[in-house]
Amino acid sequence: MLIDDVKIKISAGHGGKGAVAFNKNLKSLGPTGGSGGKGGSIYGLGVSDLGALWQFRFKKEFFAEDGRDGRGQFLDGRDGRDLILKLPIGTVAHNLTNGAEINFEKIDELVLLAKGGIGGKGNFQFRSSRNTTPKQAQPGLPGDNFALRLELKFIADIGFVGFPNVGKSSLLNKLTSARSKVANYPFTTLEPHLGAYYELILADIPGLIEGSSSGKGLGIKFLRHIERTHLLFHFISSESPTPSKDYQTIRQELGAWNSALLKKPERLFLTKSDLATPKELNQKLSALKKIDPHVIAISMNDPESIKNVEKILNHIKAKPH
Ligand SMILES: Nc1nc2c(ncn2[C@@H]2O[C@H](COP(=O)(O)OP(=O)(O)OP(=O)(O)O)[C@@H](O)[C@H]2O)c(=O)[nH]1
Ligand SMILES: [Mg+2]
């Protein structure tokens, strides 16, 4: 199971206290209280492992170490150790406490999430010509603590959408080295899958049905994974008696999630063309041409049609958005 939406709490370390201490040596009286160490901060680190949010499945609270207190004899407290949380690229960290949003888009990118509190000054820092025996020291300050929602949105170029069982995963597997499960029943794909066609990342997502937006089937929450794509590939099976209606149904579900999905450029494909007679195929293609004049028929059993899909991808690859 892919974890793609979790809430956690993070608390950076508290700064250590400054010390009040004096030299015990009678020849050199004076303040010797060291300062407290800084509290550890919490950082997010972009990683390629899309399953990295799994670490938050049970553990929900994360703390960085507190700074140590200062001591006498000029001993400053040690800084608290920082904590680094690995987050898959494509993660949006929504800070539920202050409303900020941070996007993790690059591998190895380190971003501060919560800053550790500063340490208090010890009395040595308060010495002056007027006050050679200061008795004051500061407490350390608390670190930032926030509630975070970590939402994974795949970074893909093209999103595959359509009813279940129309051949989305079959095509992904054919075009890329992905191994998305394929079977002759609806809702085979339970989680989004990515595949790379050269530098283009294709995202195969679970099938949609009428009412997905109100929770039918697998629901629509996985549509978040194609929110950032540049383009949608919309697949309609030639087994369907009503291809144009299928198209509208899927569009309605997409719009219910986020109307921005409806503004993305899309390409239509009439799949499983080997299962329709040439006459039926022509009828269905002409119906769909009213929606996308470039619609093409494809079949896993027709290598020429797969080449046509590759041509489209090569064209997209050559003209990045
Ligand atoms: N005859 C024929 N069968 C196909 C073709 N493409 C896919 N299939 C079969 O159709 C069934 C569904 O294919 P999938 O690729 O799993 O379909 P999907 O759209 O990913 O389905 P979900 O994951 O349930 O949304 C499988 O049994 C495939 O072998 C095709 O071009 N021709
Ligand atoms: Mg599938």
Number of helices: 5
Distance between the termini: 32 Å
Which percent bin holds the helix content?
10-25%
Shape: rod-shaped
User: What are the secondary-structure elements, in order, as H or E?
Assistant: EEEEEEEEEHEEEHHEHEH
The total number of structural domains is 2
The profile of the biggest β sheet is:
6 strands, mixed
**CATH architecture label of the largest domain:** 3-Layer(aba) Sandwich
Structural class: alpha/beta
Rounded to the nearest angstrom, the radius of gyration is 29 Å
- Overall mean pLDDT stands at 95
Regions with little confidence, pLDDT below 50 for 5+ residues? none
Briefly, what CATH class of the largest domain?
Answer: Alpha Beta
Q: Kindly state the number of beta strands.
A: 14
Strand coverage percent:
15-25%
SSE blueprint:
Blueprint lengths: L4 E7 L30 E6 L13 E3 L19 E6 L2 E5 L5 E4 L5 E5 L30 E8 L5 E5 L5 H8 L17 E5 L2 E5 L26 E7 L5 H15 L2 H4 L2 E6 L6 H12 L6 E2 L5 H16 L3
Parallel strand pairs: 1-3, 2-4, 9-11, 9-12, 12-13, 13-14
Antiparallel strand pairs: 1-8, 2-7, 5-6, 5-8, 10-11
The structure holds guanosine-5'-triphosphate (GTP) and magnesium ion (MG).
How is this structure best described in words?
The protein has five helices and 14 strands. A six-stranded mixed β-sheet has the order 10-11-9-12-13-14, with helices on both faces. It is rod-shaped, with a radius of gyration of 29 Å. With 321 residues, it is of the alpha/beta class. It has helices at 168-175, 243-257, 260-263, 278-289, 303-318, and strands at 5-11, 42-47, 61-63, 83-88, 91-95, 101-104, 110-114, 145-152, 158-162, 193-197, 200-204, 231-237, 266-271, 296-297. The model has no long low-confidence stretch (mean pLDDT 95). Helices cover 17% and strands 23% of the residues. It folds into two domains: 5-152, Spo0b-associated Gtp-binding Protein, Chain: A, CATH 2.70.210.12; 158-318, Rossmann fold (3-Layer(aba) Sandwich). Helix 4 links the parallel strand 13 and strand 14. The site of guanosine-5'-triphosphate has 23 residues, from helix 1.
